[in-house]
Write a structure and sequence with these properties.
Length: 168
């Protein structure tokens, strides 16, 4: 569901770029705003991870299947995490935009084929990552997992602060 949210955001970006609004996303002001929002979002995510690790509210135990509202939230999270990631924006403002430009040489069908190939690769990659993660549950304890989540939360906060400092 998260990758679906990522894919929906990418589809919207591709449509926008194919129809000429690419200059908006390459604007330093817009990119800066998205980057700042992304840093705040990353710090908030890191805080939540640290809090979950400390409160022991995160576990590797199998969770109940979510309801449809939970699945819709995962789609929204996928779009938000992607859209606020500075690297996502940088990739689309450079490599992605050039890929759209090249695929547009074949017309809208070229852009459609680019999107289909790109999103299928995203699904294959993230399926491999989630499969590896779910199988890895047998390798570590809940305590170790909580420590990993806590440390990754600290890393994400440091990354959100450090990335902005590197840009100054």
């Amino acid at each position: 569901m998260t990758v679906l949210g990522h894919g929906i955001l990418e589809l919207i970006l591709i449509i926008i770029m194919a129809f000429g609004l690419k200059d908006l996303f390459s604007s330093p002001t817009v990119a800066g705003f998205i980057g700042l929002f992304g840093d705040v979002f990353l710090a908030w995510m890191g805080y939540g991870m640290i809090k979950s690790g400390i409160n022991k509210s995160v576990s590797l135990e199998n969770q109940r299947a979510g309801n449809s509202a939970g699945k819709r939230n995962l789609i929204l999270v996928g779009a938000l995490v992607s859209g606020t990631n500075p690297y996502f924006i940088l990739w689309w403002a450079s490599t992605g935009m050039e890929s759209i430009h090249q695929s547009y040489a074949l017309g809208l069908i070229g852009v459609l084929f680019f999107f289909i190939g790109h999103i299928l690769l995203d699904f294959v990659w993230y399926t491999a990552i989630s499969t590896a993660f779910s199988r890895g549950k047998k390798l570590i304890s809940d305590t170790a997992y909580r420590w990993i989540i806590l440390l990754l939360g600290i890393f994400i906060i440091a990354f959100s602060i450090g990335w902005k400092m590197l840009q100054m």
